[in-house]
Protein 1
Amino acid sequence: MNRSRHPLLLVLSTLLLWGAGPLEARLNIEITGGIEAAQPIAVVPFGVSEGLIPPVEIAAVVAADLARTGRFKPMPTRDMLDLPTSRDQVDLRDWSLLGMNNLVIGQVEPEGSGFRVSFSLFDVFRGDELASTSILSTGTGMRHTAHRIADIIYEKLTGQTGVAATRIAYVTATGRGDSQTVTLRVADADGYNPQTIVSSSEPIMSPAWSPDGRRLAYVSFENRRAAIYVQELSTGRRDLVASYPGINGSPAFSPDGRRLAMTLSKEGNPEIHVLNLLSRELVRLTQHFAIDTEPAWSPDGRHLIFTSDRGGSPQIYRMSASGGPAERISVEGDYNGRASYSPDGRSVVMVTRINGAFRIGVLDTERGITRLLSSGTLDESPSFAPNGSMVIYATIHGGRGVLAAASVDGGGSQRLSQDSGQVREPAWSPLMQ
Amino acid sequence: MRILVFNLVAWCLILYASLSILGCSSAPSREPETPATSLPPPSSDRRTETIPLETSRPTYAGPWEDPSSPLYNRTIYFDYDTAEIKPDYIPVMRTHARYLGSRTDTRVMLEGHADERGTREYNLALGDQRAETVRRYMLAEGVLPDQMATLSYGEERPADPGHGEGSWRLNRRVIIQY
C-alpha cells in the first residue's frame, strides 16, 4: 500500500485551498410550489431612524421566511398603498380592502452599540393587535433577529413553533476522484451565512445534530479510513469517537445527547451499536447476518428504528433502545431506508422505492399509510424540520445534486442549490435558543 | 533520486503557493470583466506562469501497475444490491491470492463500492459486505488475515459519475489496492 503522503504536501494543499479564497457559495432558494390557501399578509418595510443604515432589510427577510413555510402569501411591497411604520399611522380598513388577513409593521432604532428592532402584528378583520415585541440586536445578528420575528409571527398565527431561526447542515462536493473537495457546511435555514466546518479531499458523510444544536457528528474518510467524529461548532474542536476496522457510520445522537447510535462492522457484519459518550462504553444492539444500519431514535429515547435487509429487502424495523427483538414497521414497497421520526413521534420519514424510483415518503406509524412527498428518481437523506412542518432532502436537478424542502401537509416546496458543485445530505438543526 | 525529485516538486509547489497567496493579498478585488472588443492588456502586464516539471516515475510499486501482468486486473464487479461473487471474477481473486500467498509481507486494502441507487449508509454497508466477501474468499485461498484490510466507500467514490446502468455497473465493485 504505497498510499502514504508527505506531510509537507498536505500542508501545501491546505495552503493552496486557503489561498483560493474563503468565499462560501450561498445556497440559492427557489420556491417551486405553494398552496392556494396560503394566507395573505402584508409585511411593511420597517421604519428606520434618520441617518441609520441597518445592514438587513428586515421586512424582506420576514416576508421571505413566511412565504417559505407555504402557509403565507406576503404582499409585494410595490402593491402597498401606504407604508405605516407606527401604530398611529395604521388604518386597518385600507388593508382589509386590499384583502390582507394580517399586517406587520416595525421600526429599527439605534440603541447602545446596536439596534432596537420593534414590531407589531395586527389582525386586519378583528382590528386587534396580536403581538408587539422589541428585540435588541447587533448589526451582524440582524438577519437572525428578522428570523426570530418571523417565528414569533408564525407561532402567533398558526399555533406552531416557527423554524426560520434554525440551521441546516449539509455536504458539498466539487471535482472528482483524487481532485475532489468535500465540505461539511452549516447555513441558516434560508441558505444564507454558509460556513464550512470541515473540508477534505476524501468523502464526508452523515451529519447528525446533537439535541442542543451545539455539536455535529459525522463520518470522515480522511487518511483513507472511515471514522466518526463529534465536532463542537463554536470552537471547531472535535473528538474521534469511532475508528474501528470496517464501517464506522450512521451516527445518531440520543434525545438526551449522552449516547450516539452508530453502525459498526468490526465483527464482520454491519450492526447497530450504541456508544455512551461519557463512559465510552460501547454496546452492540443487533446481531444478524443481514445488513443492519441507519439507526434513528424515537423522540422519547425508548426505541430505535433502523434499516435491515434481514427479510430479503431493505425495510424499516423498530427495537427497544436497549436491544432485543425487532419488528418491521414499513409495510409497502420493496425498498425502504434511512428512516427518522417526526418530532411528535407519530410518523417517520424515509426513502421508499416506487417503480424503480427512490422517493421521500412519510409513514403514519399508527395507521400504516405511506404518503409520498417527492417526485424525483434518486431522492434521499430526508430530515424533518424541528417543528415537523417540513422535510428537507437531497435530490437531483439538472444532473446536479441539490436540496429540496417540502411541506408535510402537501403545501409549499423549495429547491436549494449552489451555483456549482453537488449539495447533499441535509440535516435540519433542532430549535436553537 | 526519488527524494530529489520529490523535493523539486515540493519547492515548485511552495513557490506556487506563495505566489498565489501574494497575488491574492495584493489584489484588492477581481479585475472587472472587459468587453470582448477591447484590446488585450499591455504586454508588460502579462502574468507570471509556472510550468510543471516533467519527470518519469522513478519507482515501480509492483507488477499490478504493469498492464501486461495478470495482477493488473484488480477489480471485481457485482450485480445490483448483492455481495455475491460472480463466477467470472473467481480467476481474478485467485491470481491475487496466489501472489499474496507468495509474498506474505505484501498487504492490500479491499475497497468496497456501490452504485448510487438506495440510501448512502445502506450502500456503505453493501460496499462493506462486498469487500468482506472478497476478503473471505482470499482467506480461503490462503492469504493471511494480516495481509488484508477492508474499507467501504459506499457510493461516495464512483468510478463513473453518470446516472444510468452503464455507469452503475462500473461502480458496483471491490478494488484490490496494493
Note: Confidence is low (pLDDT under 50) at residues 1-6, 17-45 of chain B.
Protein 2
Amino acid sequence: MSAPATPLMRLRDLSVRFVSRDSTVHAVNGVDLDLATGEVLCILGESGSGKSVTLRALMRLLPRTARVEGTIEVAGRDVQAMDEGALQDFRGGDVAMIFQEPMTALDPVFTIGQQIGETVRRHEKASRREADARALELLELVQIPSAKRRLAAYPHELSGGLRQRAMIAVALACRPKLLLADEPTTALDATVQIQVLLLLRKLQEQMGMGVVFVTHDLGVAGEIADRVAVMYAGKVVEEGPVGALMGGPLHPYPRGLLGATVHAGMRGKRLTTIPGAPPSLERAPTGCPFAPRCPEVEEPACTAAVPAPRSPVPGRAARCIHVPG
Amino acid sequence: MTPPDTDILDRGGPGQPLLALAGLRKHFPIKGGLFGRTVATVRAVDDVSFAVRKGETLGIVGESGCGKSTTARLLMRLLDLDAGSMVFDGEGVGQDSQTGGIGLKEYRRQVQMVFQDSYASLNPRLPIEDSIAFAPRVHGLPGGEARERARELLAAVGLAPAQFARRYPHELSGGQRQRVNIARALALRPRLVLLDEPVSALDKSVEAQVLNLLVDLKERFGLTYVFISHDLNVVQYISDRVLVMYLGEVAEIGPVDSIYERPAHPYTRALLASRPSMDPARRRTEPPLTGDPPNPINPPSGCRFRTRCPHAEPVCAERAPVAADLGGGHLARCHMADPGSGHSQAARLAA
C-alpha cells in the first residue's frame, strides 16, 4: 500500500497466532501498514478484528502463547530482534502506549507525579528534582487544572477524564516518536471524550509524533485520523485517507459499517445491517473473510483465494475483487 | 393472583400516562468515621418528575453519574424511593390494591428491564430457554406452557428455537445474548420495558440489528419503552421524547425534534456539540465544555450545571432554576429559558 521514503513504522506480513494445547486462534493474518512521521493512522474494526493485537505486537506486549511472524520496524529498528534490555529502552522511549482503562494502566499505590517521574528518570537518567519539574510541565501540557496539587494525587482521587490525561502525560514523558493509543476515549463521557480527542490531536501536532489509534467508533476516527485502515478477521480490508474513505468506501464491509452506524436524520428509517457475525478465527481465512456476509459475493472467485489489495487511486486500496485496479 | 395469560386491560384509557413519576428522590449515605456516621450523601436522584406516555419511547441521556441508571432502578423498584410517588396507569405503585394501588409483584410483571451487560444478566448454568421460562413459571404458568412461550419468544427475537433453545449463555455471541435478554424481558407480557444501555456493549453492525429488532417488537407487542443511553445518535433514532439528566436532575425534556433542533439548556447544547462528526472536513477545534461532571456528593448550589456553564451569572448560584415551559411539552430547567428569572439573557430568549 502507500509507502513513504522512510516510514516511522513499517509492518510487513504481520501475523499473530495464539496457540494453546487445544486450539489456535489466527488473530492477525498478514497485515501490511506504514506510518509516516507526524501522521495519525486509525485502525478501525469491530471486536475480534485483530486491531488491538496488531497494536500490542508493535510493542511486543503479547503473551508467550502468541506466535508473531513478519516484519515490525519502528524508527528504523527491527522490533522482533530486540533483546529484553533493548525492549525496555524502546518502550516508553521511542514508543509509548495509552490504554482504554486508565485505572488499570496506572499504578494505584503511586502518585501521578511519581509515575511520570519514574519514566523520566529511567529513560533520561534525570535527577529526582529534574524529573519532578518535568512531571509538572507534563501535567500542564495535558491541561490538568491545578497541576501542582495533582502531582501528589493518587489515580483513584482523579475523575475519569483527568486520569486519562494523566496517563497521556506518563506516555508523553520521554517525547516518544510513536504513540500507540488503544481506544483511549471509549470509556469516557461524550463531553470529556471530545476534550481528550482534541487534546491528543493538539499534542500530536505540537510534538510531531506519529500516532496509531485503534477504535471501533467511526466518529472518533473521523475526528482524529489522517488515514484509516479498516480491519476485518485479522486483515486490513481497506485503507485510505479519512475523508475519501468516510465519503465512499470501496470495500463492502466498511460500506456496511457506515450504513449500520446510527447518525442524525435516520429517524423512522430502517437501519441497514450486516447480516451474520464475524467468522471464527480458528482457521486462517482461505478466501475473502467477509464473503459469507457480503451482499455482492460471487461464489467461486470470492472464496477461492484471499483477494489481493487493489488500488484504484494512489493512496487508497481495498481487498475486494470488485474494486477496479 | 391474576393468571399471567389474561390480557392486561388498558385501565386508565389512552390519555392516562403509563407511568407518572413525581418528586423522585434517592440519596445514598456514605458511612465513615468511628461510629459509622453518615459523613456525606450522594445525591443520585433529586426531585425528578416525568411521565411516560402510552406507546411512546422515552429516551434518557446523560453522562456517567447523572443518575440515569439509578432512575431506571427506581422505576423498576430494585431500589426503594426516599421520596416521591409512582403512579402506573392510574394506580399507585406499591400500595394496597384495595385503595386503588398496584402491588409490587404485579407491577414488576408489567414492567421489565434489559441491562447493558448481556452476560452478567443471564444465569450461566441455565439453558437460555429455561432462563426465559423462569419468570412465567414464578408467576404461575405451568412448565410446559412456559417453555412453549419461551420458544415463541426466541423465534420472535430472531433466534431459531430448534437451534438455540438448549444453549447456554457462553455459547452465544454478545448480540445473541442481548436478544435472549430482550426475549426474557418480554416473557411476562409486560407493557413497559426499561432498556438500560441495551446496545452500548455491542459492535456497530450488531447494534443496528438489535435496534431494528426493538422497533419491530414494540410494534408487534404494543410496548412502551424507556431507553437509557449515553449515545445521542441512538437516542435520537429510537425515541419519541427525550429527557436529559445532569447530576441527578432533569435538565431538559421534550419531543425529540425540539430537543435536537432547538435545545434550550446549555448542557444539552454542549452534549449535542460533543458528538464526533463523521465528516473530517468539519472537525471542531475547541471542545464545547471543559472539565468533568462534578461529583454528585457535593453538587453546586443553585443550578447544578453552573460550574461548567459558559453563561453562568450570580443568579445561577443563588436560585435553582425552575422548569420553563417552551411549548409543545418542551421544558428546560435553565434561568435563560425563564423570562422572569433575572438572568441577563433570559429576556432575549423569551422575546
Note: The mean pLDDT of chain A is 91.
Protein 3
Amino acid sequence: MRRDTRLAYPYVVWMVIFIAVPLLIVAYFAFTDKTGQFTLDNLRQIGEYAPVFLRSLLLAARATVICLVLAFPAAWWLSRLRANHQRIMLMLVMLPMWMNFLLRTYAWMTLLENNGLLNRLFGAMHLFDLVNGVNAALNGLFGCSLPTGITYFPMINTSGAVVLGMVYNYLPYMILPLYTIMVKIDNSEIEAAQDLGANTRMILTRVLIPMSTPGISTGITMVFVPSVSTFIISRMLGGGGNMLVGDLIELQFLGNSYNYNLGSAMSLVLMVIVLLCMGVTNTSGGEDGIEGVV
Amino acid sequence: MMGKRRGSALMRAYLVLLFSFFYLPIVVLMAYSFNESKSRSNFTGFTFKWYESLFHNDMILSALGLSLALALISAVIATVVGTMAAIGISGMGRKSRLIINNVSYIPVVNPEIITGVSLMLLFVAWSGAAAWWNQNAPAFLRFFPEDVIGFPSLLIAHISFCLPYVIFNVAPKLRQMDVRLYEAALDLGCNHRQAFFKVVLPELAPAIFSAFLISLTYSIDDFIISYFTCGTLQTLPIAIYSMTRKKVSPEINALSTIMFLVILAIILISNLADSRRARYKAAKKEEV
C-alpha cells in the first residue's frame, strides 16, 4: 500500500510550532531576566520555594499510593467478573470521569465544609458528643488538655482534603490501566500457583503483582503527574495554607506575582520532576501505555 | 468453597464502598440542585428555580456556545490532520516514526499546566512580534494579526492537545489493516485515490470516528490549557470555575445535574447500540 509520507507534514509542522517551540520559549524565559539577559537567578530563586515543591511531591506521592492500594483489589475483582458485568462496572468507573473535574471537586467542597454535610452527619450521630466526652474523661484521668468543645471536624482546607481530592479525581486513572492488564491474566495461572503450594500472599507477590507491573507503572504516572501539577484541587480544597507548585506557576502567569521568568523556571523544574518520575516507574512509552484510558 | 464465597462477599462489599465513594458527591451535588435555599447544607424545600435561572444566565449560555463551537471545529481539524498524519507516519522509516511518536507523547505526558503555560508564552511572544512587525514593515506587508489571544489561541491549543489522541487511535487500526484489501482493490481496477476512498477509509472509519469523539470530549472538558490561552473569553469549564470561586448559587448544581444526565444518556444509548450490534453480529454468525 502506498502511504504518502507527505500526508504527515502538516502534523509535523503543527507539532513543531505549537508543542516544541513553546517548550523552547519556556526554557528561554527560565534562563533570562526581564530584559532578556542570560541569568540563573530564576532557578536560584526556586530554592525559596523548596517547601512548596516538597509538599507537592509529598501529597502527590501519598495520593498515588492510596490510589494504588484502593485500585489494585478493585481492578482485580473487576477483571474476574463475567464479561457483561465487567462492561457495566467499567462504565460505572468511567462515568464520574465524564463529569468536569471542577464540578467533582466542588462537590467535595460541599461535603467537607465545617458546617457541611459530613460534619452534620457526624453531629447527628452524636460523634462530637462522644469525642468531647472521651476527651473530658481523658483530661480528668490523666491531666491531658484535650479539647472538649468540638462542634465539627476541620476537614476542608487541610492537606488531607487535598489528597482526598486527588484520589477522588484520579482513582479511575489507576483502576483502568490495572484492569486492562489484569483482564489478560488467566485464572489457570493462579490455580497453577496454588497447585504448586503458593499461599495467598505468595500469589500476590510472586504472580499478580509481577504480572500487572506494566499497568501499575502506567497507573502511577497517570495519577502522579496530574496530582503533582494540580492547582485547582489545592485551591478549592486546600485553602490558602496548602499551596502546590501548580498554584505557584499559575500565580506567576495569571495571578498577582506576574513573573513569566520565574514561572518558566518553575515549569522547567516541574517538567524535570515529572520526567524523573516516569524514568523511575519505567513507563516504556509504547503505544500500549495509554491503552487503558484512551 | 467456603473461602471463595467469603471472598466474593468481601469483594462485593468493597466494590459497593468504592462506588459509593465515586457517586456520593455526585448524588449530593444533584440533590442540592433542587434545594429551595442557597445553603449548601440545609435542605429547605423542593424547587426547579435554579434550572430556570440557569437558562437565563447569559454567562453560562454563551460559555456553552463557545465550548461547543470550539470543540466541533477543533475536533474536525484535529481528526482530519491527525488521520492524514497517521497514514503518512505509517509509511515512514523506523527512525523518523520513532521521533514523531515521541514528540506526539509530549502533550500527553507533560503536565497540562505546562502545555498551557508554554502556549500562552507563544501567543504572547507572537503578539509582541506581530506588533513590532506591523510598526516597522512596509505598509503592504503589515498583515500579521496582533490580537490572537482569544478564539484563535483557544482553537490552536485545543487542536494541539487533541491531535496526538487522534493518531494514537487511528495508527493501531492502520497497522492491523490487511494490506491485501488495498491491493485487491487495485487489481480490480481502482486507482490509488479510489482504493483509498473506497477501501482504506471505510476500513478506518470506526477508529476515525472514535478519535473524533475523543477529541470532542477532551475539548469540551478541558479547563487547564484553556485557562491559560483564553484571554478574556470564557469556555464552559472556565465559567464553572468562576462560579465556584464566587461560591454562590445552586445554579452550578443544576448545571452539573444536566451535564451528568446528558452524558449518562449518551453513554447508555451508545452502549445499547453497541450491544445490539454485537447481538446482531452474533445472530448473523449463527445463521451462517
Note: Chain A touches chain B through 84 residues (CB under 8 Å).
